[in-house]
Amino acid sequence: MIQLVPMTEQDFQDFYENLIREYAADKLKAGNYQPEDALQRSRKEIEEQLPDGLASNDQYLYSIVEDEAAQKVGILWVAAQRAKQMAFVYDVEIYEAFRRRGYAEQAFLRLEEKVKELGLTKIGLHVFGHNHAAQALYKKLGFEITNVHMAKTLD
């Protein structure tokens, strides 16, 4: 079993710089950013969401911790969008060494409890089109597609 434990400041610093790089890479792969400004645009978007780091209003940043070994196996970042009565998942990652063990599914089940405690009634998220494994997990957890953006690159 896992627990969602609020990130420490050190965990946040490690997460933050990695997040900027990974988000830029995903945006590049999806064709949303150009290589020359990907990191700068990624940093700007994330700074807008987390202007005060861990203390940013309505932002919940967790370490995903496996109970028995007290081992950090991943991270989860969620924002409360109170006007929509929704929690929005900005990032979830299970570290590579711990994947394929059910930790992501367990994290989302724990997240449902946290969202209810916040008085919210819905969980939303975005998944890149190229992330088929995540799409399969979310479908298994009962998420439904609400929008689909498509593009065709011309030669």
UniProtKB/TrEMBL annotation:
Top-level taxon of origin: Bacteria
SUPFAM superfamilies: Acyl-CoA N-acyltransferases (Nat)
InterPro entries: Acyl_CoA_acyltransferase (IPR016181), GNAT_dom (IPR000182), N-acetyltransferase_domain (IPR052829)
Domain N-acetyltransferase: 2-155
MF term (GO), any: acyltransferase activity, transferring groups other than amino-acyl groups
Annotated protein name in UniProt: N-acetyltransferase
Species the sequence originates in: Reticulibacter mediterranei
